[in-house]
Amino acid sequence: MSTTLIAEDIWPLLTKAVSGSKQHCAVAVAYFGAGASKMLPLPTNSRLVVDASERAVASGQTCPAELVRLVKKGVKAFSVPNLHAKVFVVGHAAYIGSANVSSRSASQLVEAVVRTTEPGAVRAARRFVREHCLHELTPSVLARLSRLYRPPQVPGGKRGARTIKDTSRRPTLPRLLIAQLQLEDWSEKDWALHDTALTVAKKRREHPRSFELDSFRQTGRCAYQRGDVVIQVIDEGGGSVLVTPPGNVLHVRTRRDGKRQVSFVYLEHPARRRRQVKVMARALGRGALKRLRRDGVVRDTAFARALLNVWS
């Protein structure tokens, strides 16, 4: 075990450590600028948390194109507005300090990081990253952010006309809903409508290899929309109630069937095993079972974070 302060040649050292890592890395760093994917060539299955808010992207502090390069390599990227941490976990070592992943950090700023191999500190650093892996930057989100990106202004130069006000005071999450469902037989008409709209959902898939395509039917007013995150709680009868991993809604198809409205919701979720609701409730703590059996939007931010963390 060792702990060392590094104040010189930080980026050559970090780049070498990451590129030589045989394990996936865990990183939470505020800004990820132009050229960052070469400075931090994370291996497949690594997790990267950055500030990819509209403010950070429009000011050039985080470059979506660099994130796209890593996502294509199999890195999981997430965004937390107002993130200020700089935590890098590489193998059995953690680097914690002041350095963002940017050319300015590497060539102009005076930076320092502490490198530690103390197991408790490394575990805590990895846990810090994992707990902030909540809002994944999917290809469609990165494509939208790419249209907002502007290269950073040179110090002393003219300010750009485009500014985006940052009103967030804490990390934000996508809209999370719990869907209470039961197994039932569908009519031929339902299946025909379902299969027709399924084509649209398949074209919108963002993780065809690592995620499963799923769907469910709802009667009455439809509360779901594209971009929502949905956790299905399915009563399969015989006392078995299973909870699926959080799924991203790809498409919603609605029709009138006499006096009632019928909707089909298509989503993709990680290919992970479902969990019994009571087992999951015990992991989440007191009062969780009642909340897990409640239909609709999860408005308690702390509970929403806890739900997403269970599957992260």
Short description:
The chain is of the alpha+beta class and 312 residues long.
State the CATH architecture of the largest domain. Answer: 2-Layer Sandwich
CATH topology of the largest domain: Endonuclease, Chain A
Question: What is the CA-CA span between the terminal residues?
Answer: 29 Å
Measured on Cα atoms, how large is the radius of gyration? 22 Å
Strand content: 25-35%
Fourth-tier CATH superfamily name of the largest domain: Endonuclease Chain A
SSE ordering? EHEHEHHEEEHEHHEHEEEEEEHHEH
**What is the CATH class of the largest domain?**
Alpha Beta
Main sheet specs: 8 strands, mixed
Helical stretch tally: 11
Helix content: 25-40%
| Stretches with pLDDT under 50, minimum 5 residues | 155-171
- The count of β-strands is 15
- The helix/strand class is alpha+beta
What is the typical, i.e. mean, pLDDT? 89
How many domains, as an integer?
A: 2
**Outline type:** elongated
